[in-house]
Amino acid sequence: MVNSNYVNERINLCYGTKHTCKNINYKIKGKVDTKKVGTYFVTYEANYKGKHFKIEKEVKVVDKKSPKLVIEGAFTNVCPNGKVKDVKVRASDNYDGDITDKIEYKISDNKIIYKVSDSSGNTTRKEFDVIIMDNEKPTIILNGDNPIYLAKNEKYKEPGYVAIDDCDGNITEEVIVTSNLDIKKEGTYYINYEVTDSSGNKNTIKREIIVIPKNNYEEGKTYDKVIYLTFDDGPGPYTEKLLDILDRYNVKATFFVTGYDDRYNDVLKKEYEKGHTIGLHSFSHNYGLIYSSVDNYLNDLLKIQDKVKRYTGFESKIVRFPGGSSNTVSKKYAPGIMSELTNKLNEMGYKYYDWNILSGDAGETTDPNVIVKNVTNAIKENKENMVLMHDIKPYTVDAIERIIHYGLTNGYTFAPITMDTKEVHHSINN
Ligand code: ZN
């Protein structure tokens, strides 16, 4: 038997008659590997009185143990195509090891019969009662968002889907997609995904497509329902992504820019080319520097104004103070400076804009959902909805599309700040 302890048999080699037999020394040649099934030959050889003796013996190592079939799970039903669900079957053999891949099964007369044979031909068979049926419908999984928002006339790109059936496997190719989408008209549409498995079980799911009007801003026109999206502290690494989103909906915004990072000079140019307003925030954004004296502030302001002009050709006189005109931080550096600066800017023909809606992205939250909520809850009719945001924050960029959806579906116009825009001012605290 395989794996048994075979010891080469001792033999008595004699010379002479039965009674006068004398043991002779002999040599054994050949080895029996009891770990390996097969036929082995062992020879016994001896020399005695000038004669040569040789005896050959055949040793067979055999495997007579049947493999084990292990069933995991309970049988309820099997698919009409023979697929077995929810049950795992493994086979192991004392000699061959794991022979799960050798398992065969067949289904007949509401029975499933498993059979597995090892390499020595030892076979194990197990039989179970089953019900052959398939009444489970396939599952359809949609990639991408649901609903999807589209700006009017924006092409719909299907983000894809997968259909899986318990019996048939992946049947994505069988999915029939129909839709009543008309991108030329605002409204709510549906894309229907329908799939039927080979037993006739059908599933349908829908994706909602909301076509919203593009922003329709005209310069010089005033709006009762208006939103000014303002982005401070950029341009930065997320600004281009933001510009692309704004562009899709033709939304115009205002960027209150800084000037110390030359890596984004091209983005600054792009902001202007896309029709957004470039406002002056600060070249250095260094509170200790700009709020230590009126001269320092003005030098810094002229520096950012120059930079904007150099990259866009636009001479901006639209300002936002770092921290807003109501900041108290500046008290630390120069008491009374905010009163002086606001008067000074006024004299110089500049306009400064604070905000009346906080998105919360300046430290309160990093969650785009909270930003969306903060902004959409605060937007009101007959108000200069001036939203403070920062394009250097990735979560703000992630929130922006939903804010745009809210505004456009509720009849608001997104406008950039111009010199005609009514100033939104905080009260001065220093
Ligand atoms: Zn700032």
From TrEMBL:
Domain NodB homology as annotated: residue spans: 225-415
Molecular function as annotated in GO: hydrolase activity, acting on carbon-nitrogen (but not peptide) bonds
Family matches, as Pfam families: Bact_surface_Ig-like (PF16403), Polysacc_deac_1 (PF01522)
One of the protein's GO biological processes: carbohydrate metabolic process
PANTHER family: GLYCOSYL TRANSFERASE-RELATED, POLYSACCHARIDE DEACETYLASE YHEN-RELATED
Protein name: Polysaccharide deacetylase family protein
Organism of this sequence: Candidatus Aphodocola excrementigallinarum
